[in-house]
Amino acid sequence: MKKIEETRSVRIRGRRKIENNEKNKVVKRSLRADKREWANALARTAEEAARNRNLKEVYEVTKTLCNDWPSKMNMVKDQVGKLSTTEEENRHRWQEHFDNVLN
Predict the structure, then answer these.
(1) Mean of the per-residue pLDDT values of the chain
(2) Are residues 75 and 63 in the same domain?
């Protein structure tokens, strides 16, 4: 990025931005493929453990897969529909929810 900003020529700067964007796409595509392979390998491990009736290993693999999702999956919406971004807001929203449900 520094190389792009230091370039004086507009044409060269544009070409470098395009090259940078292409490389970024390749890296992201590779990352998605690697993550998919990792998840599939874990799933195969869990299936094998289930066939062998090793529930502890199945549980550990499931826990690993479920805890790996992005943090946005842990966000909670308030009553208006706005996403809370902090842990404290999440706790407060859950408290409101259960107060309403239990009362």
Answers:
(1) 82
(2) no
Provide the domain limits for residue 82: 70-103
Q: What is the reported pTM?
A: 0.50
Mean pLDDT value across residues 50-63: 90
Same domain, 59 and 95: no
pLDDT at residue 81, as a whole number: 78
Burial call 39-70: b when 16+ CB within 10 Å, e when fewer: eeebeeebeebeeeeeeeebeebeeeeeeeee
Phi/psi at 39 (5° precision): -65, -40
Task: Assess whether pLDDT exceeds 90 at residue 88.
Answer: no
Q: Which residues contact 90 (CB under 8 A, 6 or more apart)?
A: 74, 75, 76, 84
From the CB of residue 6, how many other CB atoms can be counted at a distance below 10 Å?
Answer: 9
The residue assigned the tokens 């990352």 is 31
Domain count of the chain? 2
